[in-house]
Amino acid sequence: MKYHLITLGCQMNLSDSERVAAVLEQMGYVRTENENEANLLGMLACSVRQKPIDKVYNKIAQWNRDKGKRNLITFLSGCVLAADKEKLLKQFDIIFPMSELGQFPEMIRNYGIVNAASLKAPKPAMPKNEHIVDLWQIKPKYESTYEAFVPIQNGCDKFCTFCAVPYTRSREVSRPSGEILDEVRHLVNQGYKSITLLGQNVNSYGLDKDGEEITFAQLLRNIGEYGNQSGEEFWVYFTSPHPQDMTREVIEVIAQYPCLARQIHLPMQSGDEKVLIKMNRRHSMDKYRRIVQDIRELIPQATLFTDIIVGFTGEGEAEYQNTEAAFHEFRFNMAYIAMYSPRPGAASYRWPDDVSPDVKKDRFRRLSEVMKIYTRTYNESMVGKTVRLLVNGTDRKTGFSTGLTEGKITVRLDHKAPELMGKMIDVKITSASDFSMSGKLVLQKEIENAQ
After folding, report:
1. Which of 7, 139, 244, 399 is the most exposed place for a label (fewest CB within 10 A)?
2. Which of 166, 123, 154 is closest to 343 using CA atoms?
3. For the chain, how long is the longest CA-to-CA vector?
4. What is the pLDDT of residue 129?
């Protein structure tokens, strides 16, 4: 028996897919990348934007056509809005929330014996999240031997008006800190070099426990202490934090411990105060500015990433210009820019989508050009310097090895080195482009001479 799994969306879905794979392989299924070989076809969906959910509709239409040729069971999980779920109920054989992954084997065994509709009854608009702790008990089948995702929190209490996450993952639930630390220790002992703590709002970790759990800063400190004790070299990242909950203490802790990576992903979404209020972002530009100032003061070598939405309801040219001005002020190393698309269930879905597609595309293009100014400036400033690199891939054009710096900037090596995959090495940067750098391996002898 073989299964094929397609994962859409964020790193949380990627982490969840590792637990889905573990459950299926415990049942005796073998993963295949060729969906034509599979008896079980599944998707982890993402309803946060329209394009990923369109992929779900297109793929299930294809799979249902294939049912005329062979016996198949199809399933859907991940982030699915109630409106999408209702439309997809008759398309997929099994639909279940990730919190019920532990019951998935029984669903598969019973499929065709019991009424399938009982396995996929519609859920309320706000899904229940009380069983998410059961999901975390499932040991994942990590897809990499050197990079791993560790969920620390699930759900969101912020209710940004553009966002569907509270309606797909429900309210915030923090994972027990002991479990998180155990998983991090296990990964480090197994030789993992890059570990990312995951949550919809990671820095609100523990706030749902009314003082019964440690804070996010304390969690990072405990990981940092373990990193010092272990003697191992590894980098710990986290995504995504919310500016409302980002404290100076978190930044102080990162500055204190070498294993806590010097890279901060801090979603801004807009640089305009009125748009932020309409988005219900709950942070002002002054608040965001203070956080960036703390980062520059305490960990000046850190890279800064962000998320931006252009074309949100009511965003005029003046509001957009404020976002451009914020880019010039903060000099982001990377920005994930999205054109606004209304999501059913989110508050803004009821509002007019009053920025035309052409204007959205133009603002996306213009903001991308502004971003390139600062990504290239930073990358060029690194030429001639020696950086630590985690080798994690190959360049599609040249076949040469590639990796990520501690600040998550891509570096292309000047040769193929498959033996270095998953290892940390020293590289001297020789050239730079808009979004990446090139470098050559630094020999041990060169390092010793430089000391």
Report:
1. 399
2. 166
3. 72
4. 53
**In 294-443, beta strands by DSSP E:** 303-310, 334-339, 386-394, 401-405, 410-413, 424-432, 436-441
Domain end among 119, 154, 189: 119
How many structural domains compose the chain? 2
pLDDT band at 47 (very low <50, low <70, confident <90, very high): confident
**Which residue intervals of 244-284 are DSSP H helices?**
248-256, 273-279
Element (H, E) at 154: strand 153-154
Contact of 78 with 44, CB cutoff 8 Å: yes
95 vs 135, residue with greater confidence: 95
pLDDT tens digits, residue range 287-297?
999 999 999 99
Residue 59, domain CATH? 3.40.50.12160
- Angle at CA of residue 120, ends 201 and 26, nearest 5°: 75
| pLDDT for res 167 | 80
Whether 233 is in a domain gets the answer no
Residue 398 sits in which domain range? 386-450
| Domain-located, residue 259 | no
Q: pTM higher than 0.85 for the full model?
A: yes
